[in-house]
Amino acid sequence: MRTKDTTDQNLANALKNLMAQKPFEKITIGEICDLAKLNRRNFYHHFKDKYALLQWIFRVECFDSIDFDNPTNLEDKLPSLCYYLYKNRKLYASGFNYTGQNSLVEYITKILTPYFEKEYPFDFFCEEQKEILYRHIVQFGIDLFMSWFQGNPDMTPDEFCAHILDQLHFVKAKLK
User: Where are the domain boundaries for CATH 1.10.10 in the chain?
Assistant: First the structure.
């Protein structure tokens, strides 16, 4: 493993450990660096901010393993996404709470939008309306994940996947 990869993973492990103890928004770069035994300059050599680090974790651990760079069918990828998020629900419940600039929600929206554009074309909307609609659909999906993490953690990933697909089909049918 290259040094950059090792450092990136070390910082990622530090952030994940801290997120198990407190909310993401309360974690500082200094705390991440202290736990990773790196200086701040080293952190900023690898990541722009803690949001970029969280996005990196999600991309490397989830999206790359599920091959989200190759948009085929979202429904085929959803079970793997559900299993990954369920396994890491404490981490992402914290990460999804921040929704501002550079947020994980913004990043996921950017990645999932091509899937929705392909599977839910909504040709009767103008491009600006579609962009808003896709952003809201992704946020709706994230809200469903959050309610699953917080309200019904006993629901299996398969049960939740079926639930979220039902919800997406319902939205798609209503917008036709």
Answer: 1-47
